Amino acid sequence: MAPLLLQLAVLGAALVAAALVLISIVAFITASKMPALHQHEEEKFFLNAKGQKETLPSIWDSPTKQLSVVVPSYNEEKRLPVMMDEALGYLEKRQKYGSDKVRVITLVKNRGKGGAIRMGIFSSRGEKILMADADGATKFPDVEKLEKGLKDLQPWPNQMAIACGSRAHLEKESIAQRSYFRTLLMYGFHFLVWFLCVKGIRDTQCGFKLFTREAASRTFSSLHIERWAFDVELLYIAQFFKIPVAEIAVNWTEIEGSKLVPFWSWLQMGKDLLFIRLRYLTGAWRLEQTGKMN
Q1: From CA 286, how far away is CA 204, in angstroms rounded?
Q2: I need a labelling partner for 71 at 20 to 30 A (CA). Which of 22, 117, 140, 192 fits?
Q3: Where would I find the beta strands (DSSP E) of the chain?
Q4: Domain ranges of the chain
Q5: What number of CA atoms fall less than 13 Å from residue 193's CA on the CB side?
Q6: The whole model's pTM is what?
Q7: What is the C-alpha to C-alpha distance for residues 266 and 142, in angstroms, rounded to an integer?
Q8: What are 11-59's pLDDT values in tens digits?
């Protein structure tokens, strides 16, 4: 009986190893190069208050504003106006802005959430750049908490630092409201993030993140993932470049209308997490200290 169990254990280990090798080969072969930074002609302009075309700036230009806010939006007719009213109301109390306070970049094709944010980041004018979700789930005044979080990280190496909004402090409350299945999926995802990609950050997926201009250009220039798991790769890149990251508790409320389909979206993100790790591990994707990507 014992020899049979030993043989089964060896066979099982061999099958697991073979599967891991096969998955690594698939991850390497299917690894795409850096998503094209190419802008279609229509994406190089925005319409000003007079309805005239103006050329968008570049993140590699000198900043002309204190803060830029990037809000990805796809079929958000119901949720976006509420979020924008709150954000603009708050920002106008802090400082009066001119007629160019809102710029809309219309993308020719769907680049995914990460791709849309990257296009917005690359056209930003601010010394600091905030990414925020269109649903308004995070109260906009909490940007002050992120600003304090950035300040507490000083001195910033090469002027780079990131403050991530976090819902980790709400975990017990959310578990009480979720089904056992969704709670299991959440814990499984958090484990994969910790085990494969990012250590020390409990909530990688909150869509409320503040970057210094230099940190935004360094991380988003190296980003491959353009869909839901892009946050994880972004923080993986930040940790590789030793960019200091603060995790800051923010107020957050569940807003109806999410585009995520619980099971399939989590499954897709789980696959993305595994492939992120394997593609960097096998050299299909490489990061260099210069901040450029092979």
Answers
A1: 22
A2: 192
A3: 45-47, 53-55, 65-70, 126-131, 162-166, 209-212, 245-249
A4: 58-282
A5: 24
A6: 0.85
A7: 27
A8: 666 665 666 666 666 656 666 666 656 788 888 998 888 888 999 999 9
CB 47 within 8 A of CB 53: yes
CATH of segment(s) 58-282: 3.90.550.10
CB within 8 Å of 219: residues ≥ 6 apart: 162, 211, 234, 237, 238, 241, 243
* Sign of the CA dihedral with 178 first, then 184, 185, and 188 last: positive
β-strands 126-131, 65-70 pairing: parallel
Neighbours of 6 (CB within 10 A): 10
**SS3 state of residue 132:** coil
CA dihedral (60, 129, 260, 138) in degrees, to 10, reads 180
Instruction: Please count the other Cβ atoms lying within 10 Å of the Cβ belonging to residue 23.
Output: 14
b/e burial code for range 79-100 (CB count within 10 A of at least 16 → b): bbeebbeebeeebeeeeeeeee
pLDDT in tens, 191-232: 999 999 999 999 999 999 999 999 999 999 999 998 888 999
